[in-house]
Amino acid sequence: MGDLSDDAAALLDTLGYDKAIVVGSSLGGNVVWRMIADHGHRISVAIQVDPGSPYGYGATKDSVGSATTDDYAGSGAGLVNPELAKRLMDGDDSDESPFSPRNVFRSVIVKPGHIDTNEDAYVASMLSIHLGEQDYPGDAAPSANWPFAAPGVFGPNNGLSPKYIRAHQLALAAPSKPHVVWIRGAQSQIITDVGPLDPGTWGPTGVLPGYPGTDAYPPQPMVSQTRAWLADYTDAGGSHEEVVLENAGHVPYLDDPEAFRGVFHAHLEQANDNTKKETR
User: Fold this and answer.
1) Quick one: which of 187, 156, 131 has its CA closest to 29?
2) Domain of 59?
3) In what helix (H) or strand (E) does residue 191 lie, and over which residues does it extend?
4) Total domain count for the chain?
5) Mean pLDDT throughout 69-92?
6) What pLDDT is recorded for position 278?
7) What CA–CA distance (Å, rounded) separates 51 from 184?
8) Sign of CA dihedral 17, 20, 23, 24
9) From CA 193, how far away is CA 65, in angstroms rounded?
């Protein structure tokens, strides 16, 4: 995330902007958490749209991000369904398998039951992803801890592992703490307290033997983690607000674009007004 945060700051340099409204969505939200830590003085407002938890994705079990195991088993590239990765590699744009990119888009990315008019374009974009051990999903390491795969060192999924993410610590200590607007879809299947993709959710079903129980490996409470961390962020001198869109999932700008635009544009206008006042 530090590399991606620095890339975003370098883009601001190239474009000639000292400061900007920065928007992050999903993994991009984790980049923005890190930007607050490393480049917070360059952010006028951080708008986070269903961002990943500040503690990372997977392998934590409470609102303060305590690790489920010492090697963070269950996070990183080892968490990616190998059938999905294979179908991405094969260029599968069908809806014949529940693990095809198209059906993953329908069942996990957009809210349940939503068929987007631009779905073909989004699936084509999914199929353009760079694949491999140093790209998506990245490499993984064997683990003695359930679910028996720990994060490797390459690729974005490993970058999301709590083994590597330190934004939650660094941002609290950063001298500049921009206002954070947290917009989330109430029906998100990815950023939630009990997600269907989380090993802690499907572990009790016995799909993978050896589940250590809900006390040791519960679902990661991602919404609760973000809310608790933002409270700490505000106590440390920052500020934030949470906006929940009830009719939206992980991508509210697709699920309920009218409601999203109303919230999003209002905050853009407010941020621009505040910037004008600061420069007078």
Assistant:
1) 156
2) 2-71+156-279
3) none
4) 1
5) 94
6) 65
7) 8
8) positive
9) 13
